[in-house]
Amino acid sequence: MFTELIAASLVETLFPNGIYRYAVGGLLVGLGAAVIYLGTGIAAGASTFLESTLSYVSGQSRFQRYRPSRDWRVVFTLGIVLGAAVYGVFWQGATWTTEVQPWRLLVGGLLVGVGTRIGKGCTSGHGVCGVGSASRTSFVGVATFLLVAIGTAQLVMAVGVVP
Amino acid sequence: MSADHEAHPLFMPLVFIGGLIFGFGLAFSHMARPEVVLAFLQFADFGLLFVMFGAAIVTGLGFFLAPRLLDGALLTGDSLGRRLKSLDRNVLYGGTIFGVGWGLSGICPGAAYASLGIGNFPILWGIAGMFAGAYLQGVWRSRRASTGPTATGAD
Questions:
Q1: Are residue A123 and residue A146 in the same domain, yes or no?
Q2: Which residues are CB-neighbours of B42 under 8 A, at least 6 positions away?
Q3: Please, which residues have CB within 8 angstroms of residue B66's CB and are 6 or more apart in sequence?
Q4: Predicted pLDDT of residue B40
Q5: Whether the predicted pLDDT of B68 surpasses 70
Q6: Is the same domain home to A157 and A103?
Q7: A157 in the same domain as A144
Q8: Which pLDDT score is estimated for B61?
Q9: Which of A40, B52, B73, B128 lies deepest, with the highest CB count within 10 Å?
Q10: Angle at B55 between CA B50 and CA B59, to 5 degrees
């Protein structure tokens, strides 16, 4: 009885919003990637889209190498936006906007854009497809960005940057 | 990843449907909201672990079972390999830069696209930043590859 209460309050503390939305959402993210993989053999990540799309407007060799995949990556990204929009319309019911300050989004986005391309993957490429592939490189990548992100976010909170 | 596997008439529709499910999942899991990602990184809500590992378990099943049960990808017949990339210092450098950006903003590429879908227009700041970052590193590395001693094939 007592230990059950402790366990329940621990779950409450660690997961104040429950786990349903996270577990179901995560399974769907994996399912989306698996559908593409089963049909095409492609282990899709979200961040190559940044460079492959730049190949439409820039002749730089780093971007041109992604030319063969750039069309389907646009389609994949449009699917992501519209899939989220389906949730927005039918579950959320109204638009949702972040309170996080624009400078944090811009500077953070810039570093994410640099880092994901140098580090060979992002949270979906390394985190979902790479970990799913039991790739040692992706385990290292995920451990690196997870630990650094936790340190950064704790620091941001400690110096009082909100929102 | 040649363009010829795109020849199948259902290739693009399948990629689109996969994207729809992927994006819906990101929105449903609230990962499209930077605040929820930051709440994880600041130890206020550990739900993100279920998202990342839940997704990795599903893809893991696919990566493990599909090559054993199928001769090739169902639509294109392409080989079913795992996502393996070479491990070098770039993974650490890039992962560190990515981590600082992710920890500062709570956004990553897939979740940022999904964030646009839930009507979060300020995310355009983040997406603009990502394109700028990808562009800057691309210009720098293209230049280095053309002038340096060896053109590395790492991606």
A1: yes
A2: A153, A154, A157
A3: A37, A38, B80
A4: 98
A5: yes
A6: yes
A7: yes
A8: 97
A9: A40
A10: 150
Mean pLDDT of chain B: 92
Note whether A77 and A92 are same-domain residues. yes
Which of B36, B97, B98 has the most A C-beta neighbours within 10 Å, making it the best mutation to test the interface with A?
A: B98
Same domain for A4 and A32, yes or no, is yes
At residue B146, the pLDDT reads 82
Residues B149-154 have a mean pLDDT of 50
Q: Which amino acid is at A76?
A: F
Whether residue B3 is predicted with pLDDT greater than 60 in this model: the reply is no
Clarify whether residues A91 and A118 are in a common domain: no
Share of chain B above pLDDT 70, in %: 92
Q: pLDDT (tens digit, 9 = 90+) per residue, B26-47?
A: 999 999 999 999 999 999 999 9
Domains: count for chain A: 3
How close A1 gets to chain B, by Cα (Å)? Answer: 25
Best probe of the B interface among A11, A105, A148, by most B CBs < 10 A, is: A105
- A7: tokens are 């366990």
Residues of chain A under the 70 pLDDT cut: none
From residue A19, alpha-carbon distances to A23, A37, B45, B115 in Å are: 6, 27, 10, 20
Whether A105 and B38 have beta carbons less than 8 Å apart is answered as no
Chain A residues whose CB is inside 8 A of the B45 CB are: 14-17
How distant, in Å, are the alpha carbons of A135, B50, B129 from that of B30?
Answer: 27, 12, 21
Per the structure, the complete domain to which residue A161 belongs is given by: 98-163
Give the residue among A151, A142, A136, A149 at the shortest CA–CA distance from A119. Answer: A142
Residues A28 and A2 grouped into a single domain: yes
Say whether pLDDT at B152 is over 70.
no
Report the chain A residue with the minimal C-alpha distance to residue B131: A50
